[in-house]
Design goal:
The chain is of the alpha/beta class. Helix content is 43%, strand content 21%. It is globular.
């Protein structure tokens, strides 16, 4: 059975960083194959993985509004184009959603997308979705059943409040989520008591568990500045060990 892990949180909290570290973790644990989906309009997961993007799903949806090659149905054409858009790597593939829908109705294109994603999902053990602030892409891709939702926050009162609100709205969005976790990213070390209090309050009042806290990391800053893949971070790097401890906790309960 394919398991879906989705990231959520307000912009700039480190969802993409957490996604890249999670891919590294799954690869190291040989929990493959993996489909990573960059569903953020400001797509940059490929940059953290040092990969080039040649086609996005947003571009494919625009093509779907035009003529389809003779002898192909629209769902066959969508399936073909999505396979062309896949960036294939050892142990994982990357699919980039691209820019959100513009003027005009994309309902049919999104329907074909959902049908194709349903077929595509069967080929993977895990699907990781790096979401934008909202979670509309999950329904567009027909991913209503989420095994694990990782809500990422920065070390601010507003970030923690947003994380709590996200945990609260998953019900009205008709998303079936088995477990929700809070990860606080780029936190001061040691964590100030006031921040600990905000975190404890949010976890107590919302349907989510605290998976862990990742302190601010010079190692990640240097890795990003150099343009090197996060997958090449040394396994003994402090931030890698901290992130892996969080993922160990999550997967031990899944």
């Amino acid at each position: 059975m394919t398991k879906v892990i989705a990231m959520a949180g307000k912009g700039g909290t480190g969802k993409t960083t957490t996604s890249a570290l999670l891919i590294k973790y799954l690869l190291q644990c040989k929990m493959t194959p993996i489909l990573a989906v960059d569903a953020d309009a400001n797509a940059n997961l490929n940059e953290l993985l040092e990969l080039d993007v040649h086609m996005t799903l947003g571009e494919i949806r625009k093509e779907m509004k035009g003529d389809i090659p003779h002898g192909m149905s629209r769902d066959q054409y969508m399936e073909m184009k999505i396979h062309q858009a896949l960036i294939e790597e050892s142990g994982f593939d990357l699919l980039v959603m691209g820019q959100p829908d513009g003027p005009g109705c994309y309902c049919a294109a999104n329907q074909y997308l959902a049908m194709t994603m349903d077929k595509l999902a069967e080929n993977y053990r895990y699907i990781i979705v790096d979401n934008e602030a909202g979670m509309e892409h999950l329904s567009r891709m027909n991913l209503h059943a989420i095994d694990t939702l990782i809500i990422v926050s920065d070390p601010s009162a507003r970030g923690i409040l947003t994380a709590r609100r996200i945990a609260d709205i998953t019900g009205p969005l008709q998303l079936e989520i088995k477990r929700q976790y809070l990860v606080v990213n780029r936190a001061p070390d040691p964590v100030p008591p006031a921040l600990e209090e905000k975190i404890d309050q949010a976890v107590a009042e919302a349907d989510m568990e605290l998976a862990g806290i990742i302190p601010a990391s010079d190692e990640l800053v240097q890795q990003e500045l150099s343009g090197s893949s996060y997958l090449s971070l040394p396994d003994d790097a402090r931030v890698v060990q901290q992130a892996f401890a969080i993922f160990d906790k999550i997967f031990a309960q899944s």
